[in-house]
Amino acid sequence: MRRRLFGSVRARATLGATLVVAVALLAAGAAVLLALRSNLTDQASSEAESSARKVAVSIATGTAPAALELPDGDDTPVQVVDGDGRLLAASEDLERISGTGSPAVKPVTPPVDDDGGDDDGGGSDRHGGKGGDDDSYAYGEIADDAEGGQGSATVDGETRDHRFASLEVKNTRQGDLTVYAGASLSAEQSAVGTALTVMLIGFPVLLGVVGAVTWLMTRRALRPVEDIRSEMSAITASQDLARRVPEPATHDEVARLARTTNETLAALETSVERQRRFVADASHELRSPIASLRTQLEVGAAHPELLDVEGAVADTVRLQELASGLLLLARLDAGERPGEARVDLATLAGEELSQRPAGRVAVRTHLEPVEVVGSRSQLARVVGNLLDNAQRHARSRVDIAVRDEGPWAVVEVADDGAGVPETERERIFERFVRLDDARARDDGGAGLGLAIARDVAVRHSGALTVRSSPAGGALFELRLPVAPVT
Q: What CATH number belongs to 341-481?
């Protein structure tokens, strides 16, 4: 069951789409959470630095740490620490703190200044100046940049995470001081937690919707494929090649698949019908000489003096030629590749002419040497068939010419007979076709010669056509690619 489920295109498409969306959602969710946390953390850092800078300004302008007005420790805990790590000032109600320069929460009393000045800067400063009248007089130098950190603070029994900023104030009356100020990360944690909760709830729902939609859409898209499969199964079971699969009224890949399938079925139907006609015609052609030969042999067996030996030999030769033609057509239909021998067509035509005794018609030749690549025996069969056809239908003359026309080797065989009607010029190349007025069984033709000749020409990357000859008969033209120069 599991193998059947995941063997379905619909299931694999749904699973794949869901996984892709899940990965995308996880990546997007992680990016959103990281961006949100980074943004809120930066905001808390800015708030902490702003609070630290306000306190540092107060110290730099002469306010003693003990006299500072520090913000509420619930949201912004503050510490002021001297160079020896002693806590000089801290927010009220601060119970515990971490992540700063000192874990102390209770300020200590600073030592008394040697020059007897008070805390509010009324006496001489450490630089020899006098305060009170000059408002621009400064008691410290604030660092340009603050350093950040993270920790926690406990105020009134409640512990919260904070983002801390530390800012140095140098050359104060108490020496170099460091101000630590924090900003609560509660807003950041709450926002991130809310976003995470929404994602944990929303992502599964969204994935479920994506999976359901993909399942339904894939089912709808693949329904024509199932119809095609079902019809093909029925065609296979019934062996009725006249049936066709349904073609959806769309212009997508499934519609093209259906059209291609129907074209394949049509070609297969044509091929099967052609094979059936071929078998029927072959059986018909074989039956006549076999019946004649049997009759002659039976008569000869009963009356030896009446045995027609010449007729029996002629029927036997006819049977042999017919069997040879059928065998060659079968090999061609099976996809037999032509050979790769170099064949001189002029020499081949001369040999075919020399094997024929002088007949009732004269044969004129014009043979130019030209080589092609292919099967010598098959090409000899083509030239021989064309000569036989021309001699059978010529009145007084047959012309054969071989010449080189650029990339093509051309063989022309013409006669001065009745010719071939234009409407029949393609039909004569079909198997077992004989024109009623020109091809009779008594003439020895079975209707295979021209069919074999064209098949051989096509399989040698050439062509065989027919047209009217100058003498009024038929002119058959064989074109084959010239052999490459070696």
A: 3.30.565.10
